[in-house]
Amino acid sequence: VDGSPYMGLFGRFEEGTVKNLTVQGKISVTSSSASKLYVGGVAGYVSGSAVISDVTADMQIDAYLTSTATTDFVYAGGIVGYITDSAITGTSASGSIQASKAGSYGTSYAGGIAGYHDGDISDCANRADISVGFKTSGESEMSYPNSASPDTAYVGGLCGNGGGSSSHVYNNYNEGNLSVVNNSALNGRED
After folding, report:
1. From the CB of residue 99, how many other CB atoms can be counted at a distance below 10 Å?
2. Whole-angstrom Cα distance, residue 42 to residue 51?
3. Which of 35, 83, 141, 189 has its CB surrounded by the most CB atoms within 10 Å?
4. Would you report the helix, strand and coil content of the chain in percent, each value rounded to 5?
5. Tens-place pLDDT, residues 112-150
6. How far is CA 141 from the centre of its chain?
């Protein structure tokens, strides 16, 4: 799939509530036209005081951005790719999540619940295996950043990264495996 930068059951979701939902399947997206790619089992991008609650996602997610620009980003999560000013509660994710970018420049975010969050995540569980990396032209497998390259990879069991004074992560747990080869690639958030 190439085109929309927002991928999921709902590509982009603003305001309102999604609850009591089960999603299962595979999202495999390669984009050469977007500078930012948002991929999640439920939604790629969530904002505007939206609430996602009591959702179960069993997904295989592979998000690959072919751009080599340092200002381009890929966000992938079992529930949402990117969430801001919204909440996720009582959800669980399983399966696998992979976020990768071409070359060794730019930023990749991957998390079991959210790739990036600036909101609330509570009472959630992740069982998905998560990996982040970079691909060069013609590679089918990911490689991992090294300390000499100007790239960043954020990976976490719940969220790859996030923050802001109004964001909270509480009463959650992770059982998924994280693929981190080089310590310089591990920049996950600890709450």
Report:
1. 32
2. 12
3. 83
4. 0, 60, 40
5. 999 999 999 999 999 999 988 766 544 445 444 444 344
6. 19
